[in-house]
Write a structure and sequence with these properties.
Co-chaperone DjlA N-terminal domain-containing protein, 0% strand, single chain, TerB-like, mainly alpha, 8 helices
Length: 162
Amino acid sequence: MFERLRHFIDSLTGPAAPGPLLSEDYRVAIIALCLQVMEADGIVSAAEQAVMRQKVMEAYQLDAPTFEALLAAGESAESVAIDYFRFTSEIKRHLDEDQCVALIGMLWEIVYADGSRSEMEDHVIWRVADLLGVSGRDRIMKRQEAARTHEHAEDDSSLVQQ
């Protein structure tokens, strides 16, 4: 009886779209969130893409071909996503609290890569941090760290130009 009810409900809503590689590798979910943060302000800059590539490859010790495969899967997963929960729940199964805080720091690094921070980027990171169980205090500390790092990078580049 339950099976018939499930079949009926499935016929009304259609089959669930499986997420590409999502259940196979949590790093796909991480890349999908990075992409969503980059797209939040409507502009995906080359600087943001470069920082995402560098930070993800360093954090998860990826070689270029592995990163490219995960990126393709992340783009596919992100394009059909309707919320952040699908990604954050997968990530929470694989990362501990400190790793989730570090992920929020990485997302802030991506935000500051293009030299500006938008209200939409703030909102995306706030939601992601909340779903990952990262405290407001840790989220703000990571934002401030990324802002300071970006500020120092700008100071260093202006010294080189002089």
